Amino acid sequence: MIPTATRALALRAALAAAALAAAGCHPRQPLPLTREGDWAVARDAATRRFVLYDGFDHRATATATHLSLPVREARARRLAEWLGWTEQELAARLAQERAEYAAGEEFLVSFYTAESRGQDLDAKPSIWRIALRVDGADVLASGVTAVDSTANLVQLFPFVGPFEVVYRITFPRPPSGEVIGKAFSVEIASGVGKILLDWSEPVAKPVDRPWQPVPPP
Prior knowledge:
Layout: H1 4-22, H2 37-45, E1 47-54, E2 57-66, H3 69-83, H4 87-102, E3 105-113, E4 129-134, E5 137-140, E6 143-147, H5 151-156, E7 165-171, E8 184-190, E9 193-198
Antiparallel strand pairs: 1-2, 2-3, 3-7, 4-5, 4-8, 6-7, 8-9
């Protein structure tokens, strides 16, 4: 059952689109489009998804983007294009991104669970264990923070679904150093099941929108 508020939002969006069409207008999107340009290439290459099933029952979906330094810088430049930042504003954002990257590894994770009580990645304690696996060792998450799904965030990460919660998940830098360029994975595990987001192989194609039907394996 779709919540009443969600149905109302969908109805308002449909009415607005119809009004624009009737007036001979078209809604404007930011340029470059979210699936075009250097940002789209960097984001899609750094993004993985895992859909968790119990038989034919869909339990959870996680879609994660590894925020390496090149991905962070591409995101900052895309925001600068969309928002019309000055050179000084862009330079300040790039400095912030470099400082945050120097502190450790970070992932932006869009997370859905079929049962709402499983949606607690940022709880203390959470039912989920979150580990970065690289060079044969596990590094446990040092921070998990839910973030608002703003219009800018959804434009940047179009795979974020309307029924998902978005988290920033951070890890200390592994003893072997940066993970970029290595085979690594993030495991999110609980009694509900085990989600494995794997960066050991290049992604074959961009991640589609997660609310589209996904067949069980």
